[in-house]
Amino acid sequence: MSGSLFVRLGGTEGITKIASDLVDIHLANPSISPRYANSDVSALKNGAATFFIAGTGGPNVYKGKDMVATHKGMNISGDEFLAVLDDALEALEKNEVGQREKEEVLFVLYSMKPEIVRI
Prior knowledge:
InterPro entries: Globin-like_sf, Globin/Proto, Globin_bac-like_CS, Hemoglobin_trunc
Number of domains: 1
Organism: Ferrimonas sediminum
Order of helices and strands: HHHHHH
Cofactor: heme
CATH class: Mainly Alpha
GO molecular function, one term: heme binding
Pfam family, one: Bac_globin
């Protein structure tokens, strides 16, 4: 399949499903779920979806903070960051995303590490 990563992930509908599953997986992951204890799950899912849509070549519908502003002061550990990547892979696999696309998504997520870990 060719086209932008946005298109290859199923556009807005496909990415919204992946993001929703990702948040659900985060909430069930004991190593990171405490971070979400007082969160608005609907807002989390919307933020994840719109960030992902914009970041994969779709329309720029994201209205949230940048990664540094979002994670500043959270002191996220390297282990927590890797747990998030593992959860992302699980969500991608659940949605039967192709290997090439999984690699691209994980590469992009990993490239954000300096904007997320220990800031």
